[in-house]
Amino acid sequence: MVNLSDQYIKIKPEIDAAVLDCISAAAFINGPDVRRFEENLARYLGVRHVIGCANGTDALQIALMALELKPGDEVIVPAFTYVATAEVIALLGLNPVMVDVSPETFNVAAEIIERAITPKTRAIVPVHLFGQSCDMQPIVELARSRNIAVIEDNAQAIGSDYRDTAGTTRKSGTIGDIGCTSFFPSKNLGCFGDGGALFTDDDELAAKIRMIANHGQERKYYHSVVGVNSRLDTIQAAILDVKLKYLDEYCAARNLVADRYDQELGELEYVGTPIRESRSSHVFHQYTLKVSGRRDDLKRHLEINGVPSMIYYPLPLYKQKAFSGFAAPGFSLPVTEELCSKVLSLPIHTEMDDATQGYIIDAVKRFSA
Question: What is the pTM (predicted TM-score) of this model?
């Protein structure tokens, strides 16, 4: 699905030098590369604060902790997403309220969220799925009108741009109260292990987030709150700082692959190609088709022909055994269930050459012949 080896080879001298510098300095925990990367990423995103942490799941958990939500508070989250988004809500004793998504963009929308708001709603977690931002302006306006916090799950869309009705453009993840991302190796900006970060323009929130991520201490051995141990590894920060310089190039390369898929597969009767949010650019963390009727047969056909594909996601969150206590018997979200039965993601990455993509496209077309 991705080709991280060839991506590394292209920037190998820079990566190797950055890693060796860290080893030589022996500054493995909270070394200077961490703060340098945080500052450079903040500059790229146009946000006041970036705080690194150990992984994207921790980022979501720390964000919820920083907002001081109480057990039983409700957090609205799409049911069509990776488990981590709802997992941290449940871990903190909060109630994940799962909602449907748009059948076109797979993203949650303000009108869907509004129907789920109750007096117990304290936060909304829009997920910028597969590489494009949700339509954030109406979501933020709704949240502000009800005094509800917004935490953006930006693990799949870092680098995408959102444009509001006034024409102002901001990076996804910087529009709500807190943005969260993952640097898992296969992400558009990925390290060589685990890593994550939080973004905010709020100075007070930033200080609280940084404190929570470091055992709840403002200074060593003085702990103001119960926190966690979640640090971005210095070597990973050094790697990310190199790769950040290439992020826009990576996004452009993914768009070229997506454009060719659109052109070649768009006329097939049994597949639907991705629809773009009107106010967001797309960085194509995934290229996801909607396959009518024979999705699983197509997946098997591709596998036989040596083409990997993935189903993101095969089951709504409320049907996962882990979340059986958070939904009433018979609870159903029609769009989410339809997508779980139809979606199929094709390989897309920065190093895909014409011949490889041509082979994938031909394999898909042969299935329909």
Answer: 0.97
